[in-house]
Design a protein that fits this description.
It is built from no helices and 27 strands. The chain is mostly beta strands. Strands 1-2-3-4-9 form a five-stranded mixed beta sheet, with no helix packed on it. Strands 5-6-7-8 form a four-stranded antiparallel beta sheet, with no helix packed on it. Strand 23 and strand 24 form a beta hairpin.
């Protein structure tokens, strides 16, 4: 068992949220810190559009001073399945009212119950959303900055330095280099006619020399300087990725019975480490009866611990900290 927290992690705060499903598709949510002190409590909308729906998780800014949450009061009549609009509101944690609200395009998700969190900037208090196929950066005063545009954009990731943007439509992954005004094709997926790809796990290496992403049972790593794409096969579908160093990463793979190719199997997940130099894989942690969508490991500030949550199918969740040797 883990017996000591590294010095570089002792001052770090962990923000979390929990929820309870209420009637009518609503969640009551509470965001707390490591001391268990509630930071924010409010009900939010669980959006449902025909056969597809997305749960929008409340998120707190890296500095702990703002909360983003879904709210139907900011949703107008232009909601449609094709555009997938959702209303969001931003508020200061010290105030009761919202600073402002806006409508955004939600990413296309593979599963009805797949949650989505709006990503925050690590440079300043701002967040990233897509509006009318345009990637934008929004600030607490309601002002915004246009970053990139991609017709049919389905998902994206902004690098920590904000020098690069990774974006994907239904068949292709692109890298945007704003300083050079370049949009380059990283990976074009082939396959059956009409098959939609679901790119997930977009993650940037610590030095931003590479970016990783997954689709199905494969992980791709793109070297930004050499413009070289490397492919690594896995033993199951990949749900999330996190870098450990510039030469290794961890990823979550697993099964969901709702997948046609996984019918008859149980929910399960495995956290594995991948060495990019050798291609060798090592299992760090695995569980049966746990949904792989809920894991999403995060590297601690010291780079020696992983933080992740486990969502038990019979109810309840746990937030766990694990060393990189799996203990």
């Amino acid at each position: 068992p883990l017996t000591e927290i590294p010095a570089g992690d002792r001052a770090a705060r962990i923000y979390y949220w929990d929820s309870n499903l209420l009637k009518g598709g609503w969640f009551s949510r509470r965001v707390g810190d490591t001391a268990g002190v509630p930071v924010y409590t409010r009900s939010g909308l669980f959006a449902d559009a025909g056969t597809m729906s997305i749960g929008f998780d409340a998120t707190i800014s890296p500095f702990g001073n703002y909360i983003l949450s879904s709210n139907s009061k900011f949703l107008s009549s232009k909601w449609s399945l094709s555009q997938r609009w959702i209303g969001f509101g931003l508020r200061d944690v010290r105030k009761e009212d919202y600073n402002f609200g806006l409508e955004i395009q939600a990413p296309f998700q593979e599963y009805k119950d797949e949650p989505y969190e709006v990503p925050w900037s690590l440079k300043d208090t701002a967040f990233f959303v897509v509006v009318a196929d345009t990637l934008k950066k929004y600030f607490p005063d309601g002002s915004s900055q246009v970053l990139a545009h991609l017709d049919g954009i389905r998902t994206f990731s902004v690098s920590p330095s904000e020098r690069y943007f990774l974006m994907a439509d239904d068949q292709t992954v692109y890298l945007s280099r704003p300083a050079a005004r370049m949009l380059e094709e990283v990976k074009k997926f082939g396959g059956l006619l009409g098959r939609t790809t679901f790119v997930r796990g977009m993650a940037w290496s610590p030095g931003e020399r590479a970016v990783a992403f997954a689709e199905g049972w494969n992980i791709w790593v793109y070297d930004l300087n050499r413009k070289k794409l490397s492919e690594f096969g896995t033993d199951a579908k990949v749900f999330s990725i996190e870098w450990i160093s510039d030469s290794s990463l961890v990823y979550v793979e697993g099964d969901r019975p709702s997948d046609m190719q996984q019918l008859g199997r149980s929910y399960r997940f495995r956290i594995s480490e991948l060495s990019l130099g050798t291609g060798e894989k090592a299992t760090l942690h695995e569980r049966i009866g746990q949904d792989p969508l809920s894991i999403s490991p995060h590297r601690s500030p010291s780079g020696t611990l992983l933080l992740f949550s486990e969502n038990r199918l019979n109810g309840g969740s746990e937030v766990k900290v694990m060393s990189l040797d799996g203990k």
